[in-house]
Amino acid sequence: MSFPQRLLNPGEHVVVSTRTHVKELFGPATVLLLAIALGVVATVSLPEQTAANVLEILVWVAVVATLVWFVLRPLVGWLTTTYTFTNRRFIARSGFIAKEGRTIPLNRISGVDFEIGVVDRIFGCGTLVVSDASEQGRVELTDIPRVEKVQLLVSEELHRISGVSHDDGT
Fold first, then answer.
1. Is residue 119 classed as helix, strand or coil in its secondary structure?
2. Among residues 120, 154, 160, 118, which one has the least CA distance to residue 139?
């Protein structure tokens, strides 16, 4: 996934761009399977009568409503939410129709940490914690794939803009 070039300032380039781990879609996938199974069972088990046909239609309307709310909505949210670090700023963007975003200049970021739980370790993801000097203080980005690598890349960029050298430890 790449951040749109048209949204970058002149001289700005993407250091890392990511979205949450696909494990965020495990719940919606389970709902998808259960809702379709419920619809099929209802269709097969109802007798061939007019009242049963109305009930079958109602079951499928409920299945479709469930799929839209508990499957399609989270899928669109997952697809349209990105976290991008450029050589100048951190950008969080989300939304399909109504969009929202947050930008933090890199020179305002005071630290980038990560946390990896047991389940996160299994899936190779974790929480990236971006601390800044604003009133909000910190942004937690949960379920970031390869979080240690992302933290390393962002830390290197923070060191680069602050003028700190890795070679001599200053």
1. helix
2. 154
